[in-house]
Design brief:
about 90 residues; alpha+beta; Aminopeptidase; five-stranded mixed beta sheet; 2 helices; Gcn5-rel_NAT
């Protein structure tokens, strides 16, 4: 079971998965005002390859956005591709 952790300082944030005490999968976002966040970067290390870690990280951002009633702009190419393939994320897409 992958535990997804979250940090947010009000300006930027990240969801991440640790392996051996180090972030092995990360998705980083930046706030654009109070109603929108922009996914800037997604990265998954070798230890998590093939486990859908990247998709789980994108899903964490989507769930967070729904909770906070904000929109998401997936600028990073990976997150953008996941949004394109997942029509049920259109409710939070900016």
């Amino acid at each position: 079971m992958m535990e997804i952790l979250h940090k947010d300082d009000g300006k930027r944030g990240m969801f991440y998965i640790e392996a051996d005490g180090k972030p092995e999968g990360i998705i980083e976002y930046v706030w654009a005002g109070s109603q929108k966040l922009i996914i800037e970067h997604t990265e998954v290390g070798e230890k998590l390859k093939g486990q859908s870690a990247g998709k789980k990280l994108v899903n964490s951002v989507v769930e967070f956005a729904r909770e906070k009633h904000v929109k998401v702009q997936p600028l990073c190419t990976f997150a953008h591709a996941v949004f394109e393939k997942t029509p049920e994320y259109s409710d939070v897409r900016f």
